[in-house]
Amino acid sequence: MEIEIDELKRVIREVVKEAVNEAIAPVLRSRSEELLTVTEAAELLKVSPQSIHTWFREGKLTRIKCGRSTRIAAKEIEEKLAEGKLYRYGR
């Protein structure tokens, strides 16, 4: 039985997406009404703050301005993860 590379990549993407969603879901449920800083969101997603800013520019996340600081709705992060629209493999 042989699997083509594209099919293997697709299966790996799905497995990783499910694992990430399962791992992060309990934390996000407890924070669903919360606004997170860029640093908090980056730590939660285990990415750099620069990735968060890139996702703002790409339109993957909505920036909420609070004076001079930027916030992100935890609920939006949860929704985008469920849709698979944050990580690069989710393009």
**Main sheet: strand order:** 1-3-2
Q: What is the CATH C level class, in words?
A: Mainly Alpha
The structure class reads alpha+beta
Radius of gyration: 15 Å
User: Counting H and I runs of at least 4 residues, what is the number of helices?
Assistant: 4
Low confidence ranges: none
The CATH architecture would be Orthogonal Bundle
Task: Categorize the overall geometry.
Answer: elongated
Q: For the report, how would you describe the main beta sheet?
A: 3 strands, antiparallel
Kindly describe this structure.
The chain is of the alpha+beta class and 91 residues long. The protein has one domain (5-90): Arc Repressor Mutant, subunit A, CATH 1.10.10. The chain is 59% helix and 12% strand. The protein is built from 4 helices and 3 strands. It has helices spanning 5-30, 38-45, 49-58, 74-83, and strands at residues 35-37, 64-66, 69-73. A 3-stranded antiparallel beta sheet has the order 1-3-2. A hairpin with a 2-residue loop joins strand 2 and strand 3 (69-73). The chain is elongated and about 60 Å long.
